[in-house]
Amino acid sequence: MPVTSEIVWEVPEPLSTHDVRVDDETVITLRQHGNPSGPRLVLSHGNGLATDLYYPFWSLLVDDFDLIIYDLRNHGWNPVSGLENHSLPTLAQDNDTILEAVDLHYGAKPRIGVFHSVAALATLLSPKKGGDFAARVLFDPPVCKPGRSFKDYEDIAKRMAKTIRQSTSQFKTTQELVDILPYIPAWQHVVPGVFDLYARTTLRERANGEGYEPRCPPEYQAQLIEYASAFAVLVDFQSLLCPTKVIGADPTLPYSYLPTLDLSDMSTVDYDFLPDTTHLLLLEKPQECVRSMLEFIEPIITT
Question: How far is it between the farthest Cα atoms of the chain?
Fold first, then answer.
């Protein structure tokens, strides 16, 4: 049953782009949107997604903020490079290289990192521990604690990786994917127009011109999830070097990705969750996400 939406999210052309070579075979394209005179936000996305997909969220920030957005390696605007280097430590290293490039190309000024899911986990794993940010806002990072929760997390990660490897990797049209999404539980709560935006931002035309394929191949997505548990327990919230806000999905709801960790007992983390949201909270309640983020960063950017 085809599903249509009257809302079409059109991501504007960036004010500028800049290619950053993060290793011998990998290039990541930075894009600048918004108000270059405003406080700077650096944004990136979750596994298998693309930062352009988050336009319902960051479109609410373009008048007031200098937005530097990028896709993780092998995602979004970036070409696909070797699978052997597609790992969380490499993503963390890329993040550090990208921040240096942001300063060199756009000029140095305080920056606030705004990261979702795997991008949030990657920045938490950086040896710099956030010291290169004025602050960070992390949406539902897939972290977990050692012990029983780790075993559950590991089992779920393995099942998810297997499911992703078995998922469809070719589509005759982008509409074919749009028509599937309403039947996938994880996508039940997104705002109107996201199905179409998802298809346009995460699929690319195949090299032979015959249909479309995921910009981040399923094998790459699966590999990140498969090894996520080994790194998710390494996050040390006691050693963060910048103010950090974690905005989680509702931990009382069935999770749509890896289990959401309730961090309310962590004294070193400013933690909230958004009621009635899942892992895709930025696409479900973008206005509430912006409001919660601004409550945290406004005292920082005005001092």
Answer: 54
Q: How many helices (H) and strands (E) does the chain have?
A: 10, 10
DSSP secondary structure code for residue 17 in this structure:
E
Q: 270 is written with which tokens?
A: 């400013």
d(CA 88, CA 95): 11
126-143: b or e for each residue (b if 16 or more CB lie within 10 Å)? beebbebbbbbbbbbbbb
Q: Reduced to 3 states, what is the DSSP secondary structure of residue 14?
A: coil
Instruction: Give the separation between CA 246 and CA 7, rounded to whole angstroms.
Output: 30
Cα separation, 200 vs 203, in Å, equals 6
Higher-pLDDT residue of 3 and 152 is 152
Residue 244 bridge partners (DSSP): 136
| Residues 7-51: tens digit of each pLDDT | 999 999 999 999 999 999 999 999 999 999 999 999 999 999 999
Provide the residue type at 208 as one letter.
Answer: N
The Cα–Cα gap between 269 and 271 comes to 6
pLDDT tens by residue, 283-299 = 999 999 999 999 999 99
Looking from the CA of 221 toward its CB, the CA atoms found within 13 Å total: 27
Nearest by Cα to 105 from 25, 50, 42: 42
Residues whose CB is less than 8 angstroms from the CB of residue 124 and which lie 6 or more positions away in sequence, other chains included: 130, 138, 141, 143, 235
Task: Look up residue 187 and give its amino acid.
Answer: W
Give the residue ranges of DSSP H helices in 1-54: none
How far, in Å, CA of 62 to CA of 189, rounded?
A: 24
Contact 196, 178 (CB under 8 A): yes
Which pair of tokens denotes residue 8?
Answer: 């079409």
